[in-house]
Specification:
Blueprint lengths: L1 H24 L4 H6 L3 E4 L7 E4 L4 H19 L5 H24 L1 H14 L14 H14 L3 H10 L2 H8 L3 E3 L3 E4 L11 E3 H27 L5 E5 L5 E7 L4 E4 L2
Antiparallel strand pairs: 1-2, 3-4, 4-5, 6-7, 7-8
Helix pairs in contact: 1-5, 1-7, 1-9, 4-8, 4-9, 5-6
Length: 257
């Protein structure tokens, strides 16, 4: 319990830093564009033309089953007693590595973090926000390394939760689970890589990663709710202006004119 509280406080401080920096550094009303989930994309795979969208939920809906799976696992895996856990340890870790990989491969999470990074760096809101072809390089160069420079709190959290080696090991089945540790068969001696990791250390990484993604979405919703009762004028790239406000009933922004 004490360890859980320490993780929660560490992650909470880092997440608060990220949103404070994004809000303070955002140009014009770009922070509102972020909160209102504006985008420019096709409404479906078969659509011929792209559209400007307000309250774009498409990436979230594509990712919803994985979010439900993650929360179901987190709510139940700690109920397994020690004897049973020894019997199904490999299954649990396989599931955790899959969930960890999903978190760092998801368009929903990558785009979300990229928009925050852009705001912090005082770059214009990215209406298209397309994930780079090489996701590992994109996450590291465009998001992780940039955010780590912003505060010691953010760096400390990302040093715990982000290691592309774990994602690659799961994706290519380059790991094996021993009695008390995980051996990574994709170890090449690079500074960020690990040849083995204790299962207890992996549990810390896995739980901290989940706490981070839950908290950053909770903070996003909190910032949305803080705009309640206020109206904002946004300008689409084609020059069309629209007044919007947050709707508590739907949890989304909507136009009022």
């Amino acid at each position: 319990m004490k360890e859980d509280n320490k993780i929660n406080e560490l992650v909470k401080t880092a997440v608060n830093d990220i949103f404070q920096l994004a809000r303070n550094n955002a140009k014009d009303n770009d922070f509102i564009l972020f909160l209102s989930q504006c985008s420019y994309r096709k409404l479906s795979i078969t659509a011929k033309n792209k559209s400007y969208l307000l309250s774009d939920q498409i990436d979230f809906l594509y990712n919803r089953d994985k979010i439900d799976l993650r929360h179901t696992y987190l709510q139940n895996f700690e109920l397994v007693n020690t004897e049973e856990e020894n019997n199904i340890k490999k299954v649990l870790i396989d599931i955790e590595l899959m969930i960890y990989t999903h978190l760092w491969e998801s368009d929903f999470h990558i785009k979300f973090l990229k928009q925050l990074t852009n705001l912090i760096r005082k770059k214009e809101f990215d209406w298209i926000n397309k994930v780079g072809y090489n996701r590992q390089k994109y996450c590291r160069d465009e998001i992780i390394d940039r955010l780590k420079k912003e505060s010691n709190n953010i760096k400390e959290v990302f040093d715990i939760i982000y290691n592309s080696q774990f994602r690659d090991a799961f994706a290519h089945s380059q790991y094996r689970i021993l009695n008390e540790e995980i051996e990574f068969l994709n170890y090449e001696g690079k500074s960020y890589q690990k040849e083995t990791i204790l299962i207890s250390d992996w549990k810390l990484i896995f739980l901290t990663t989940n706490v981070f993604f839950d908290m950053i979405l909770e903070r996003f919703e909190y910032n949305q709710e803080q705009t309640l009762g206020n109206e904002f004028q946004i300008c689409y790239p084609d020059g069309i202006k629209q007044t919007i406000k947050y709707c508590e009933l739907t949890g989304r922004f909507r136009p009022i004119n």
